[in-house]
Amino acid sequence: MGVTTWLGVRIAVAPSAAALALTFVAGGATLGVVSGLIPGLHANNMALLLAAGASAVPGPPRLVGAAMLAAGTMHTFLDVVPALSLGVPDPAMAASALPGHELVLAGRGREALRLSALGSGLAVALAVPLAIPVTEAVTALYPTIRANLSAVLAAVAVGLVTTEGSYRAKVGAGLALAASGGLGLLTLDLPTNGLVSAGGTLAPLFAGLFGAPVLIDALGGGGVPPQDDATLALSKPAVGGLSAAGTLSGAVVGFLPGVSSAVAATGALLAVPYRFGARGFVVITSGVNTANTIFALLALRALGSPRTGVLVALESSGAPLAFPLLLASVALAAALGFVLVPTVGDRYLSLVGALDYRMLSVAVLALLLA
């Protein structure tokens, strides 16, 4: 190992250690690719499996932790691919389709993939200058937030319900919120004894609730239609502004307990001009999802509390919190994910479009059931 000094900073050069670290990060990123491309598999499902198997992985615990974080970061990039490709409804139902599926039905799935990659990639780039000021601001405010957390979460819940567009939608949102709370009360404390020693009831809940409904709804759908070119319909300033909104929302979620990325994306969309439509939704949700991974890591360091399933898995695995290594693993996985989303996603869309869509949906549902 060689040591040199540059601008007053001592830099250690250890090629063999660096190669080993890169191997672990690459292995974790590969796991993230696999999990991201499996339909219906939530990032927290992957985190629970990683936590269960981390102790059996040979190697330094700090590198195992870096691999886990690389897997989680890569998953936030690649999970848009099956989300766009599967669960596409019949064209007659396009008016009620999810925003990403609206683009696929219009033949703009390849554009949607690139918008998602830009949203996630720019979130990583924007998180760097925002890391210190956001961390300092939230750390100063956190005691007050923590003391009034029930009121904060109640305000978030009321905001989600009241911002729905019609009275019927408000009632539906309220019922859905009440049902989710009831489900948690009934199930989260139940004793479980499954094949995987981590996660308990959360493992099937994440897979079922996040993966199954859209697939069931689309069993009679027409599948993925032929897709046009990948030209972006949004300008560079628009993509940058939407990504910034997603990044800031992801920062809030990273520090605030009890609020998910989807909730933050919903809040951010309220500030987005209507003209951006489904494209704005794709950019913002991707930015929130990836920024949440980064700011949750900063929250773990500043507040000592994990905010995502991946960080809960990291903490439960006993891996040391080597933050320079963990941040580097996030950056490397993000760079790989940015490249892989359009290249893998285009082929994924073409493959799904060539298969029997009903049989594919049934097969994916069977996978989730298993």
Features:
mainly alpha, about 5% strand, about 375 residues, 2 strands, 15 helices, two-stranded antiparallel sheet
Please characterize this protein's 3D structure:
By secondary structure, the chain is mostly helical. The chain has 15 helices and two strands. It has a two-stranded antiparallel sheet. A hairpin with a 2-residue loop joins strand 1 and strand 2. The termini are far apart.
Put the structure in a nutshell:
With 370 residues, the chain is mainly alpha-helical.
Report, as a whole number of angstroms, the end-to-end distance: 48 Å
Radius of gyration: 21 Å
Strand content: under 5%
Instruction: Please tally the β strands and state the result.
Output: 2
Annotation field: number of helices:
15
Strand order in space, largest sheet: 1-2
Structural class: mainly alpha
Q: What is the string of helix and strand elements?
A: EEHHHHHHHHHHHHHHH
Major sheet: size, sense and barrel closure? Answer: 2 strands, antiparallel
Mean pLDDT: 81
| Amount of helix | over 70%
Q: Describe the global form.
A: globular
Low-confidence stretches: 90-96
SSE layout and pairing:
Layout: E1 2-6, E2 9-13, H1 15-37, H2 43-53, H3 61-78, H4 80-85, H5 99-105, H6 109-147, H7 149-162, H8 167-187, H9 202-217, H10 236-255, H11 261-269, H12 277-303, H13 309-316, H14 323-354, H15 357-369
Antiparallel strand pairs: 1-2
Helix pairs in contact: 1-3, 1-14, 2-3, 2-13, 3-12, 3-13, 3-14, 5-6, 5-12, 6-10, 6-12, 6-14, 7-8, 9-15, 10-11, 10-12, 11-12
